[in-house]
Inverse folding.
């Protein structure tokens, strides 16, 4: 049973154990989850729910992803220590922080200035020096830094994300929720090195939509 006086470390360890029992079994992913204090990415209003396995609201009408989905998507990306990873949809920066523990460099793009500034402050406080941020429309990827070994999209692309797929290295992997409705299919694309790719369906997920352009509001 959860006790109110459990430390954040204990509560996080219990959450990570439950993710393992649900199929997040890659030891490197489990270590990264355990080393990332989710309460620091969770709004004040939801502090007591930071270690629940659920998505939570953040500023700008967006969400911090559900830990199980973060674990599943990170595992699906098959990150290697030398990987340069592009992430679209920084949001709270929680997923970014986990990627940064496993990859050489993480490039992350967000279309809300407020979210980007808050995430940058967290990366600084946690001394995540291998994260490079950009305020912009991630639907176009990051052409100046392409190609990437891995790409993770944490907002739902309406259709196959062609611009992003074109920024993958041969053998590279892209994981994204794809679909126009409230429920999407998590897809894994693997670049075949000849301009094509294979696609696998990894199950149903629910993400906020990938929107065109940067947000006009803060
Ligand atoms: N990984 C994040 C999830 C954030 S929700 C976390 O765990 O906190 C998805 C994010 O994608 C939102 O912050 C949203 O603003 C952002 N987003 C949506 N469309 C985008 C686009 N075209 N470019 C960049 N970011 C985008």
């Amino acid at each position: 049973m959860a006790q109110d006086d459990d430390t954040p470390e204990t509560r996080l360890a219990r959450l990570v154990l439950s993710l393992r029992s649900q199929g997040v079994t890659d030891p490197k992913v489990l270590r990264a989850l355990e080393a990332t204090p989710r309460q620091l990415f969770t709004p004040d209003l939801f502090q007591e729910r930071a270690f629940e396995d659920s998505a939570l609201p953040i500023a700008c009408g967006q969400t911090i992803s559900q830990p199980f989905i973060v674990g599943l998507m990170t595992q699906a990306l098959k990150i290697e220590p030398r990987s340069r990873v592009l992430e679209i949809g920084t949001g709270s920066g929680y997923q970014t922080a986990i990627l940064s523990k496993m990859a050489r460099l993480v490039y992350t793009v967000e279309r809300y200035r407020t979210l980007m500034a808050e995430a940058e402050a967290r990366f600084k406080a946690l001394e995540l020096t291998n994260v490079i941020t950009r305020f912009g429309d991630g639907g176009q990827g990051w052409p100046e830094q392409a190609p990437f070994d891995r790409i993770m999209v944490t907002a739902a692309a309406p259709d196959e994300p062609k611009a992003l797929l074109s920024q993958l290295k041969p053998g590279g992997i892209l994981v994204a929720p794809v679909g126009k409705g409230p429920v999407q299919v998590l897809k894994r694309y693997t670049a075949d090195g000849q301009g094509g790719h294979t696609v696998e369906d990894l199950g149903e997920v629910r993400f906020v939509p990938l929107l065109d352009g940067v947000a006009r509001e803060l």
About this structure: The two ends are 41 Å apart (CA to CA). Residues 3-205 form a domain with the Rossmann fold fold (CATH 3.40.50.150). The chain has one domain: 3-205.
